[in-house]
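DM from R.C. (forwarded with permission)

"hey, sorry to bug you on a friday — could you get me a structure for this? deadline for the figure draft is monday and I only need the backbone to look sensible"
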Amino acid sequence: MGFLDPFKNEGKCGRCQIVFSKKEIHYFDSSFRGRRKHGEKLMLCSSCFVEEISKYFKNYEAMAIAVYPLKELNAYHF
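My reply, with the result:
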């Protein structure tokens, strides 16, 4: 049933495999809404998320990126 079971309060990081509270798990999708075949869709803890997104931004070809957290949705928008 998807990445996180809605009836559990915990989720496992897809990279380090450590179990965290759902509030500490972030959805990382580098497939750009499914348009990029080589992209990944992962559920990551905060530290793994920062590492993964920093690698992605280093290879980004645009001039600038603005990233900010959406606390009410537990997500980042850029």
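R.C.: lifesaver. The chain has one helix and six strands.
me: no worries. The chain has one domain: 10-77.
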